[in-house]
Amino acid sequence: CGLLLTLALLSPGAAAARKCVLQGLWRNELGSNMTLSALDASGTFSGSYHTAVAATTKQILVSPLQGAQQHPRAKGQPTFGFTVQWLFADSTTVFVGQCFVDPHGKEMLETTWLLREEVRSHSDAWRATRVGSSIFTRIK
After folding, report:
1. How far apart are CA 61 and CA 116, in angstroms?
2. 24-138 — its CATH code?
3. SS3 string of the chain?
4. In this predicted model, what pLDDT tens digit does every residue of 107-132 receive, in sequence order?
5. Are the C-beta atoms of 66 and 81 separated by less than 8 Å?
6. What φ, ψ does residue 11 adopt, rounded to 5°?
7. Is the four-CA dihedral 129, 130, 131, 133 of positive or negative sign?
8. pLDDT tens readout for residues 42-86
């Protein structure tokens, strides 16, 4: 009986049923760290982002973020979005993504981001937006 229970708990379906939680400390593949607060009743959250990469000569500062999770009491692998207000650059980044739990119970945030930097004129707008993706894994 114990062996059957153990096998059932370790099966991929058991991990997939585990709910993914945004709150905590996360790191992406480039070494950037992000801390997310608990969701409030409406599904919004705040936090901080410390990037490991930036196109600036200024000192990189921990920057605030604000976000929302879609339907906070719904499914176990929720979608979310957040905005980072960079304190050291004339730019803003928005992230959208989904929180996943892999078959081994490991949580990850798969995201796509847009970074918009300030440019001097409309004729320079063509170079003002960058797009990319990041996968964050839980540190704590």
Report:
1. 18
2. 2.40.128.30
3. CHHHHHHHHHCHHHHHHCCCCCCEEEEECCCCEEEECCCCCCCEEEEEEECCCCCCCCCCCCEEEEEEECCCCCCCCCEEEEEEECCCCCEEEEEEEEEEECCCCCEEEEEEEEEEECCCCHHHHHHCEEEEEEEEEECC
4. 999 999 999 999 999 999 999 999 99
5. no
6. -70, 155
7. negative
8. 999 999 999 998 777 888 899 999 999 987 666 678 999 999 999
Q: Please state the domain extents for the chain.
A: 24-138
Place of tokens 């176990």: 76
If you search the block for the tokens 């196109």, which residue do you land on? 55
Length of the chain: 140
| Residue reference for tokens 């719904």 | 74
